[in-house]
Design goal:
CATH topology of the largest domain: Rossmann fold
Shape: globular
Helix content: 25-40%
Bound molecules: 2'-monophosphoadenosine-5'-diphosphate
Number of helices: 10
Oligomer: single chain
CATH architecture of the largest domain: 3-Layer(aba) Sandwich
Order of helices and strands: EHEHEEHEEHEHEHEHEEHEHH
CATH superfamily of the largest domain: NAD(P)-binding Rossmann-like Domain
Structural class: alpha/beta
Number of strands: 12
């Protein structure tokens, strides 16, 4: 019998997950279908009950349900529990297991373009995406991470909550502008610069390290103002398509035991977005 997978969120109609997962199932020869389901917060509990009752094999969870789903699951893995968000659920014989592939997906994508050992990293933002990325980056050997967030108390709280004061500190906007040239890798996790406000950037660039990596989790637009500005100054840039593809690939691996072709996933997303460069 065909297996059913899906994604729950609101809004969900523009999700590109069905496109890349259905393609990956087809490529790998699985008899499976992936469906997007629009689920309002008030219906989340019933939706999860429905997933169980229908025997759905696994599903992704996106905004706004990544935190709220946790108490509705049977088991949550350690990293997802610490991050406080689940984006992937696996149904094993009726037991629902929750994972977070956002942080690991992001770090795998970043490692495609730079090694991380002995690197100084700046994370811009302290929201849900920053939490997953910060927690996962902190597991890497020999890195130093600073956080800049518009609301400084939130980045300070994050460092405190993860007990990472030995490798991370919070900096102000002025410090971020002045000291940007110290960082090997700059990770942009806020919504600043996202369509339709594409002329915005969270940090004006004065000076950057030559060859620094600038990575933005946004993929609409394909190249944010921050990435454009950094490229002009000599940075190597990476947009959010890479993280999106890797988090999907890791979810697919949780469900099937096999990694799909991430380059193909990126290509499909790029075509869908009409992107011109990575
Ligand atoms: P997500 O789960 O996508 O990370 P979130 O948890 O709402 O979303 O976090 C949004 C992040 O973008 C936060 O770091 C937020 O900064 P604040 O903590 O100060 O709110 C940041 N952000 C959103 N709009 C911003 C803006 N106009 N300027 C600067 N930072 C902004």
């Amino acid at each position: 019998m065909k297996k059913l997978y899906g994604v729950i969120g609101a809004p969900i109609e523009h999700s590109m997950s069905p496109l890349i997962h259905n393609d990956a199932f087809h490529q790998k020869g699985y008899n499976a279908h992936y469906q997007a389901f629009h689920v309002e917060p008030k219906n989340l509990k019933e939706a999860v009950v429905g997933m169980r009752a229908l025997g759905v094999s696994g599903f992704n969870v996106t905004i706004p349900h990544k935190e709220a789903i946790i108490p509705l699951l049977d088991e949550v893995d350690d990293a997802a529990g610490r991050i406080g968000a689940v984006n992937t659920v696996v149904n094993r014989d009726g037991i629902l297991f929750g994972y977070n592939t956002d942080g690991r997906g992001y770090v795998e994508a970043l490692k495609e373009i730079t090694s991380l050992s002995n690197k100084r990293i700046l994370i811009i933002g302290a929201g849900g995406a920053a939490r997953a990325i910060f927690y996962t980056l902190a597991q890497e050997e020999g890195i130093q991470v600073d956080l800049y967030n518009r609301t400084a108390s939130k980045s300070a709280d994050l460092i405190h909550e993860f007990s990472l004061g030995h490798l991370a500190q919070t900096i102000s906007l002025d410090e971020a502008i002045e000291r940007l040239g110290d960082y090997d890798v700059v990770v942009q996790t806020t919504s600043v610069g996202m369509f339709p406000k594409t002329d915005e950037s969270p940090v004006p660039l004065k000076k950057i390290k030559q060859g620094a990596v600038f990575s933005d989790i946004i993929y609409n637009p394909y190249e944010t103002k921050l990435l454009k500005d950094a490229k002009v100054l000599g940075a190597v840039t990476q947009n959010g398509v890479h993280m999106f593809a890797y988090q999907a690939a890791l979810a697919f691996e949780h469900w099937t035991g096999h990694l799909p072709d991430t380059d193909r996933m990126k290509k499909l997303v790029k075509e869908q977005l009409g992107g011109i460069s990575c």
